[in-house]
Amino acid sequence: MSSCIGPPPAAPTAVRPREDREQAERIALSAATRHGAHLRTEDVHAWLAERRRAHVFQVDRVPFEELDAWRFERGTGNLVHRSGRFFAVEGMHVVEHDGPYGDGPRRDWQQPVIIQSEVGILGILGKEIDGVLHFLMQAKMEPGNINLLQLSPTVQATRSNYTRAHGGTDVKLVDYFVRPDRDRVIADVLQSEQGAWFLRKSNRNMVVETADDIPALDDFRWLTLGQIAELLHHDDLVNMNARTVLSCLPYRDTTPGAALSDVQLLSWFTGERSRHDVRVRRVPLASVRGWKQGADAIEHEEGRHFRVVAVSVKAGNREVAGWTQPLIEPVGLGIVAFLVHDIGGVPHVLVHARAEGGFLDTVELAPTVQCAPGNHAHLPPADRPPFLDAVLSAPRSRIRYQAVHSEEGGRFLHARSRYLAVDADGTRAALDPPPGYAWVTPGQLRALTRHGHYLNVEARTLLACINAMAAGPGGGAA
Question: Which regions span the lipid bilayer (predicted)?
Answer without folding.
Answer: none
